[in-house]
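Sequence of F-box domain-containing protein (Mycena chlorophos).
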Amino acid sequence: MPPRRDRLKRRGSYLPVYLSNDDEALQCESSRALQWTVADWKRTFKYRRRVRDFCLVTTLNLGERVATEAFLQAVQKALPLAEVPFPNLRHLDWIASGYRSVDEWFCYLRLLSSPALVSLILRQYDLKTASDVERIFTIETVPWGLLRRLSISAVEANVDPMLPFAFSAISARLEHIETLNLPLVDAAGLGHLSLLPKLRSLTLDIVPTGPLLSGVDFSGGNRFPALKELVLEDANPDTAAEFLSTKDAPWEIESLTLEASESEPRERVASLYTTIAAHCSHSHLRALCLSSQATLPDPPASTLSAHALTLAATQTLFCFPNLTTVVLLHGAGFILQDDDVPKLASAWPNIVSLHLGTASTSQVWPTATLKSWTTLLERCPLLRRLTFAVDATQVPVLPVRVRPAQLRSLVYLDVGFSPIDDVEEVARFLSASFSGSFKLAEKISTLNEWRWEGQDDADPDEEDEERHYFERWQQVNDLIATYSAIREEERQWAASGQL
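Predicted 3D structure, token representation.
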């Protein structure tokens, strides 16, 4: 049964008001809502007890901030004295920045808060001091002890040294939290969070180390009993290792994400892999993502190969047989041989998403050939998304009789920086090696291809070679689609007896 839709007309324009089947949601088209007056809001407030979800986005653009402010002021003026606009609001998501003062922001946050909240997402980048964070406690309508989801993003590069303690004070009030994203906490905050029986997902923007971890004792007892997902942002190998080592028993998590802010040499990355293998349950882990939020600075050209990973550096992670998602994006990609790939495929037979590449704009010249792709796709039948650079200038010789592997799952292929010469030979090899799909993938992507997509003029610099390879891989994708379409027509003709 489709949701009911009421339309309220004002001066020839319509404001859609969508009510769900159980009348538990009301969403307004914000661009038109901003044009409404106080009188308009008073008329529509008969629906306000039905609102369950509210998402408000403001940016640094002054015009948008002022428009949003006008909207909030109109709502505030339309309210009866001392009432909140949405008393049954359960989910509040607010991206706010560019306000003239923190006082202004808190005024509107208090206005929108509801004692029925179970989910609160605040992306407010004007919070810079511990006192700013502590003022969140003054919002008496937020039921901190009942929240199931809390996300606060507020920290800049230069942070108040007291911020960890302020955020830990917030975490100490959480009793039923299930998903938590905080900038950072101290030892006391971690100790409290480790005892919460429902905490399933924990994200820390800055990894606490040194003094912030002093006094942490996770020995004995069942710490983080329900935790399934752990995300540590801005984590170099040392800080990540220190944090993971705080728990004497293995972390029984299903998903681990560590995001770095700079490229690390192979030895340090290998050391991090060893720590992960030593402190995470081998049977529980399903997703492992070691990457970065943004593009890393390129390693020095003279030491590029020292930032590329090898099989020896990676195989420590082969102890996790149940992995379905692996994302290993570091400073300069991978140096793998064709003979290395069968070992990888045997270690992760259930892999669905495999991304082995670079997190910078630089990558070593790959040594594996197209044969590595065929090995992976033949031995990992569930594989749907693949990032793997190869040297496609070397096209393996097809056997006299080819038995194409069934390829029905792969929908995404990122070849990174994969050198290629003969487009037709590469397309012929891949088309002959696989069947069951009109395309090898929905689209073949290359390293940072956004630099050229939709552009007519090539930049006359060292990126010309990469653009050249990008264009050739697009030709490969088109040829594979053409070959597959022809084979499909031939099969239809053969089935109908026309051949």
